Request: fold
Amino acid sequence: MSFKFKSLQWRLVSIFIMLTIFLIIPVGLFLNIQVERQNYESFKTSIERGFDNWKINSDSTLKYMLDYLSVNKERNAITEFAILDSYRSYTVINKSNLNIEYSSDRYYNDGDAGGQLFLNEILGSRNFLDVLEGAEKGDKNKKVKLNDGRKYFDYARSVILTDGEYILYFRYDSEAWKETLAGFNRIILSSLLFSILISLVIGYFLSRTITSPIVKLMHRARRLAAGEFDHMLEVMSDDEIGQLTMAFNFMAQNLKNTLMEISSEKNKIETIFNYMTDGVLAFNLKGEMLHINPAARKMLQDKDMDNTFSDSDNFSDFSKKYSLNLQLDELLYRDVTKRREININCGERILEARFAVFTGENKKPEGVIVVLHDITEQEKLDRMRREFVANVSHELKTPLTSIKSYTETLLDGDLDDRETAVKFLGVINSEADRMTRLVRDLLQLSSLDNKQVKWNMKEVSIVNIVKSSVNKIKIEAVNKGHELDYFVTGDIPNIMADRDRMEQVMLNLLSNAINYTPENGKIHVHVEVNPDKDDEIYVKVEDNGMGIPEEDLPRIFERFYRVDKARSREMGGTGLGLSIAKEIIEAHGGKIEIKSKLGIGTTVIVILPALKSQETEKIEFLRTV
Reply:
């Protein structure tokens, strides 16, 4: 027997049990209410019958009434009100001052401040308050509950005597019928438990006749879902469940044949779909996503975007997130033979999206397929090619224009004026030198790009390279009034490098620091071992010059990129120095970084791999200027 209480069988059993409970419990509640009501009616009737035989009138006094209630020669008045035990009591209260004149209640204590606590209990009665407010009697069937848990019924009636108006207050304690109720409740509880047991047994066997065939079908369905198509269920009857079993067996056989065909085709398609380098997405007519392959998921996920693409997105979300301005209906109900292509900017990627409608057997549109092709590198190369051609053309155009104009001026007759001719020829020579530098730098970059540079790699001292570079350029620093220092901290290992190329890098960095630092500036060069990695050497070139704007830092190593284009050209720069330096440093297995703040200064950090086993330079400090 299974104890899975969520099953249909146990739900049916539970229904039987709940029906039993819902039938017996109301009966028990009704009997409890009726017992209490009957006791109250008996209590009320006995009191009203007593008042019907009442011998007291408005000419009587309080003393006479109390004597009459206690003992009467003709009749016992207490017997008239059926106050025969400790559960029933009466109390006489002066209506004008609420003084308790007499009480037969067992809880009344005359020594307790005149029974004040007892009076407070009486004041909680609605029947008493009704009479106190002017009603002739209070006989509402309302149980009074005290703070200590005691419950009772009460009855109040006003009596007018010659010496004042009084209230007769009767009380009937619930303990009087407590045992009767307890007996009823025990009978009801026993009946309830017995009924539940009978309902459980009958409900179980009745529900089992219904659920047993269903359970077998359920287990068979699970095995069918797991791929077991060969097992057939036995048909046990000709009723609806037996017919359902036959239909299920027939369905299983047909499903087996169909799935074998589908599985073969599905495996072929999934293999192609998952291993495509292009991304593929498919949406149905409602815009819901049907398929997305790993390539598309990778292309569309970008951590830097505020709204990244998720597998739960529909076509509208897809169009909105990537600003396609496309509606699904626009694609579905146009000429299905036509395709549409849109470029998508996805973070740093540029994707070419091709939209095509796929149709069903009746040639009606059933959805849209989106094929994504990553053209980021292609676009980047095209942009770099365009910028490179434009920059080279611009860099060559300026000196050529100057040479052309000055040459034409000389040819027009200024050759006779020697001073003017010499000045013009000097400009022509300067512009020719500028073109020579540009062509030289371009040839060097081309050699680096095409891996045609012949490196003369040797074990060299980076300290000596820095020292030599500082000495070669110190004249330029002196001419601008700069303070040029270099520091060597710690034992610096040697490096494997092409000395000339490395010196070219250092001269370029020092030259930039001098050129872009106002007069009387400070330039410091530090050589030290990385404190976190002893196999890395740091060369830092720091200045307090004009600095570089934060938005220009990511592009500082691009070819022909200048922060201040006019100033760079005035100083004879080609805009290729840092690009060449970066290529050389990376060819040596290192890297170069720039930190700068506008108006504060710039720090260039060259990180090079060290040779651990070689002798190192000693600590030194040299101040050259």
